[in-house]
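Section 5.1 Outputs to date
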Amino acid sequence: MKGTIHYFKNNERIEKEVAYIPFRFCFAILLAGLEIAAILAIVVAMCVHVPYFYLLVQATEIACVVSIIASDDNPDYKVPWLLVVLAVPVAGFMLYFLFYSRKLKRKYIRRLKHLKHHAYEKDDFALFEQLGSESVVAHHQANMLCKISEAHLFTNTRQTYFKLGDEMFPRILEDLRNAEKFIFLEYFIIEEGVFWNSILEILKEKAARGVEVKVVYDDIGCMRTLPGDYYKTLKSFGIDATPFSMLKGNADGEFNNRSHRKILVIDGKIGYTGGVNLADEYINQVERFGHWKDIGIRLEGDAVKELTKLFWIDYGLNVRRQPTVSEAYFPELPANGSGGYMVPFGDGPNPIYKRRVGKIVIQNLVSQANRHVHIMTPYLIIDNELCQAIENAALRGVSVQIIVPHIPDKKLVFEMTKSYYHRLLEAGVELYEYEPGFIHAKSYLVDGEFAMMGTINLDYRSLVHHFENGVWMYHCDCIQDMEKDFAQTLGLSLKVDETMMRPNLLMRLVRSLVKTVSPLL
């Protein structure tokens, strides 16, 4: 199936034919739908023809309701599931069993433990002692983050902040050209164009020279941007590639839990992450929603080890055979005199991550702010706990400023973002819309001392369902660059006030309905 998209390049309107939903994805969706329909039909038939079977169905529904209420999940997430289970007979609790949480087969649980165990080892005690002597708050934040994400605390890592994907693009190409041993890439979206094709040419050349090249891309993220069997094309170039959670038509969390991560590792010495995917709008080669504002960070030093580990876990969970992780992927690096502390970390659904790592990091940063909180995010769809943390910071006198897009990529999602405006403004939060276009940056700054950036949006997809990654930082050299960029972006943004928010009755109804089910989207 083909479709046409329109975008602008050098002020010229261009049409591009894309695979709207490739056959393999259509088949997988159809197969999952048939599987659900068959189970529903069997259950309904049993209710009709087997005496008292309906009592078992009712008991199952009650058990689901009790299980949801008794769970440790946030009420904002539990309430929509309760509505589904109670309002939709039979199908409601079946959807609950299929999609409420991700399930891993035992072999993958064993493989996950193996991959973590055979990554690098690091004793953080001395470094935490040093950090504690400088800041108790920073020590507590980093300590909690390391515990819940199974990550480590690092120094000895240079940071280069990029305020636009346009600026990061040439630096990535330069580093790739200098790769000697291995290159690992994991991205939510890869699309053929100036950005990816420039990278691919280097990857092909490096693979031909014996450099180990591995690529992981999300199967649904690339559904409209790459052929369904693109991994075979890459393998023909000598590149070891695999889709993340390849759709096979199973009626389970494979549709729901995607890898939204953006990770590039070169020789275990240099790592990139941030919001930038490998597609041309991210470097403003094409224009789809006005100017595309995105950010990235280049790490050079010890902290790259954690990005390498995250890549190997995702790669290892998506290939047929358990890979061998060599110590050579985690080289010991010389001291480079870089200041600051950082924790690169991963986040994702149960059972891989027991807690909502990204949400906890953001809550801790906001809750412990004394002077200001600066946030850039493409979406603002948050649960009550996170919303209260932001409100409370503003109410106690902290300057809280949040920048969201002015030109949205998804209009319905933007209406969900706007549904939080009144509540936040009432608490004293300052809201801005990036007037030149779409802001895809995920940046969280506190008091000029703390920062977190990476792939984590302020929405349920990122905070609950997706596999994500980020970098928590304290007193790092790049934080001042991030603050300067925030101030410049603020100068290009429209301040939101009550006069801009007068939705009609229909729009208020739409926002209310979508807000109710947003945790399930």
